[in-house]
Write a structure and sequence with these properties.
TIM Barrel, single chain
């Protein structure tokens, strides 16, 4: 299963259902801030997403991202309770946190944007875990890369991409911070621009509201946009996983 988003030149378009966790509860982010809404027990939410057809989960430890604790044990419980591959994210900027994510059962790990302030460590980690790592690019309206949660300013997008290129980052999870959780549509221009500028694969996160948004991203697969992370649209019911997978598959066939 590990090659579904990793090693083929033109991998199938991957649809990730998002599960964000804070204080042991399922939450959602909106423009970088944690929603007040509580979506329930993370294990039950994950099982519900799988029952709805989720084939891949993107699980985020919000407390670790905000530097106020860890939900590693909860994430391990989530992964143990479901039978689909999981990508773990949220404040992963050290060898200890990276190891903990893999020990919890993650198939893939998404390093935080501020990990690029340690490009030598990122390069070593990428080499040690070939094909299993990506790096977050959380981009604000001024094209600055800001590590969500910690709000660390990593730098202007083009400069960050140069650093990441030196570390040979093969895949990014790209989030337009202003679109995140707003269900206003993904920033397709940003995803495409990063894919073209870097030559790396891009998974788009933030803003997806319906099947048309998934299809728009999947239409850019040949250019390197290889996946989408879908959150609030699934929780509020504006998009089903069946429709998301259908949209991705139809675009792939055209």
């Amino acid at each position: 299963m590990t090659d579904i988003i990793d090693v083929t030149p033109k991998p199938p378009f991957a649809v990730f259902a998002a599960l964000d966790i804070s204080h042991g509860c399922a939450k959602r982010l909106t423009q970088g801030a944690i929603d007040a809404d509580d979506y329930g027990d993370p294990v039950e939410v994950a099982q519900s997403l799988v029952a709805q057809g989720a084939r891949l989960l993107h699980v985020v430890d919000l407390d670790q991202a905000f530097e106020r604790g860890s939900n590693t044990e909860v994430i391990a419980d989530v992964i143990a309770a479901i039978g689909v591959p999981v990508q773990v994210s949220g404040g992963i900027n050290s060898q200890q946190r990276l190891r903990a994510a893999f020990d919890a059962g993650a198939i893939w790990v998404n390093l935080s944007a501020d990990s690029l302030l340690q490009p030598d460590w990122v390069a070593v980690a990428l080499d040690q875990h070939l094909g299993r790592l990506s790096v977050s690019l959380d981009v604000d309206s001024g094209s600055q890369v800001i590590a969500r949660g910690s709000n660390i300013d990593v730098g202007p997008l083009l400069e960050v991409l140069n650093v990441a290129s030196g570390a040979k980052v093969p895949r990014y999870i790209v989030t337009d911070v202003e679109a995140d959780g707003m269900m206003s549509g993904p920033n397709t221009e940003l995803a495409l621009a990063i894919a073209q500028a870097s030559g790396a694969h891009v998974i788009s996160s933030g803003g997806i509201r319906d099947a048309a948004d998934v299809a728009a991203l999947a239409a850019m697969r040949e250019a390197g946009v290889i996946g989408a992370v879908i959150g609030k649209a699934l929780y509020l019911g504006s998009l089903s996983l069946a429709d998301a997978h259908d949209a991705a598959a139809l675009r792939r066939q055209t």
